[in-house]
Amino acid sequence: LRVVKFRRTGESSRSDEDGISGEHEIQIEGVQTELEPVELEDGAAVPKEFANPTDDTFMVEDAVEAIGFGKFQWKLSIITGLAWASNYAMEMMILSILAPQLHCEWRLPSWQVALLTSVVFVGMMSSSTLWGNISDQYGRKTGLKISVLWTLYYGILSGFAPVYSWILVLRGLVGFGIGGVPQSVTLYAEFLPMKARAKCILLIEVFWAIGTVFEVLLAVLVMPTLGWRWLLILSALPLLLFAVLCFWLPESARYDVLSGNQEKAIATLKRIATENGAPMPLGKLITSRQEDRGKMRDLFTPHFRWTTLLLWFIWFSNAFSYYGLVLLTTEFFQAGDVCSISSRRKETTAKCSLTCEYLTEEDYTDLLWTTLSEFPGVLVTLWIIDRIGRKKTMALSFLVFSFCSLLLFLCVGRNVLTVLLFIARAFISGGFQAAYVYTPEVYPTATRALGLGTCSGMARVGALITPFIAQVMLESSVYLTLVVYSGCCLLAAVASCFLPIETKGRGLQESSHKEWGQEMVGRGSHSPGVTRSNSGSQE
Question: For the Major facilitator superfamily (MFS) profile domain, which residue ranges apply (predicted)?
């Protein structure tokens, strides 16, 4: 008799008051269901009727763990990565290419050039919570499809903007659509087995790097001949490919169960099992009690209040520091070292604000190298996140960034400066990805998309503020600027340590109910085991 043996953990576990043991067996499709002896580990045999009287139920978490990682998840990884590369990385990379081009072509003052970048973040900040609410209310797939089509439409229209005011509005609307991209992580995480979840979400960062590299190469080919309008249009076209592939994407089985559509959830799980060539548990699919979805008040229940507030600050600090470092890198490299910035500022105060320079081939090369610096951060985070946990990984990333920022107080040479900036960016990007792993894991299905959406919105607040520190404050005091970034990350490291829940080795929550949440904390340190056995022997 072939069975799948579960060691339930987290929300997949039911309380001991129910009289159910922590470990039990579930029949597999195609196995004979007539009464027959079941061999126990000690060699004794009992009728199947009495062996496991409660094995006729399972939860989505059980099914996902039993089916495991396979062909379906590989396809989903590529599609999610395509969304990350085309809808996020490429559209964000355009900002560093479009701004200097329009600065020269339309003779824009510097504040209008800066506004082109800020308006995208304003759009992302204003829409992140909305997309999270839509995904919790109407489905992850629905929210993701609408946001992608929205970005595609206004991204193409941006290429036809006749004047500055038009492109300002259209890029703001593009940012509004980009705010829905993090929901792809929500959908992705809900189909991943626990052991593969952290690694897979972290590897999405690879697609970010691919998207930015592709955008730079596209700019090298398109800008000298066709111009920025064609660059905007061609950069939006990969979104069309993702929109087509969205028809293959299934809705999250966790969302379907929570919304009462269990038949659709079972059909989705069977589809995954078929594609992976894995057995599907028999029995009745159960879930926690029905509850409202996508309600902001659920983020501030006693169980999640501190988690939400601390995560908001962590996400704010991540974006504030990451985008600030990107801006500071340009300033430092142009000056040669930190100590030369003040003298360089004095020499350039008399220059007209309309003075401009088009991007050169050397500039595009520097953009490529800057992008490649994020790979080491992903690799380090990938290595430590399942060893020391999510909270300590985020704290370590912030501490290393803060330490490197303080070392910039020294008048180091160009080579040492490059190394320090490289390390700082590697760790802050790795910390960002650790936050993307932790946030979907800590919130239950009913509020997972909203929780991720609000965190993403707070990150955009940080991205909005950081130009005033990295550019405006830098003109008056280099050291005060470095103290602000270092101090912010130091506080974020403390906030990471004070997060009340560690999600390492824990299944995704299905319910935000108090008793279920308390059980998650009590069992959170145990890792689930999913083993297959024949005639009672474990592999």
Answer: 77-504
